[in-house]
Amino acid sequence: MKNKITILITALLIFGCRGPVKEENTNTASASTLPIGHEKYTVNTKQSLVVWKGSNLMGSNTHMGYIYLSKGELIIENGQLIGGSAEVDMNTIEDEKHGRDNDLVKHLKDSDFFDVKKFPTSTIVLTNNAATTGDKRNVTGNLTIKGITQPVTFSAKTEVTKGVFKLNGRLAIDRTKWDIRYKSGKFYDLLADQTISDSIEFHINIVARNKELNL
After folding, report:
1. How far is CA 198 from CA 43, 63, 104, 194, in A?
2. Are 48 and 84 in contact (CB under 8 A)?
């Protein structure tokens, strides 16, 4: 089974925001002040979902499953996502049937892959958001897995309607950049059908709500 196991990874957004402050000295600007025109949105962890997909090198054996956000906060300006961060609970890794207590999931959680006991969460911090074509955006950020942080970029469709923000995007990463080397062709001399692809895809669906509107 380990010959066919796939990797998952994830990521997606907890967007660190700043909170309101009391003004005690008019000559001192507080770092926690949210700039005028910026709005704080809280990620709805029950409505948000990340779907992961991995395969062997030849693509003949593919696995997919799910993983969930534990918390997240976004900053929106004029209807556009401009910052924030999100945290993923690595203990929520599931297979395509939403199973968690099986050999596939247990292997993904062990030290061959995500070493979840040692690194129970992964995070992504947004650094930029630029328009491409139509309603598509190029979202860039820093993704941390197993204590290793690397820059990432992914394409996403975003929208804000009546205080509800939605993001639908696809992120692909090279897992070896986060020291996930199990059966990677870069580090092991294996037959093609035993080699696991270094590329992992995940499809991100995020729903967040404006904190001020109490939706």
Report:
1. 30, 14, 17, 12
2. no
Largest CA distance in the chain: 68
Set out the domains of the chain in order of their start, with CATH numbers.
33-213 (2.40.128.110)
* pLDDT tens digits for range 99-121: 999 999 999 999 999 999 999 99
Alpha-carbon distance of 145 to 11, in angstroms, equals: 9
d(CA 139, CA 81): 9
* CA pair distance 45, 64, nearest whole angstrom: 20
Helix H, strand E, coil C: the string for 45-60 is CCCCEEEEEEEECCCC
Encode pLDDT of 181-204 as tens digits: 999 989 877 766 678 999 999 899
* pTM of the complete model: 0.79
Closest CA to 90 of 113, 122, 64: 122
Residues of the chain with pLDDT under 70: 1-35, 59, 191-193, 214-215
Question: Residue type at 168?
Answer: N
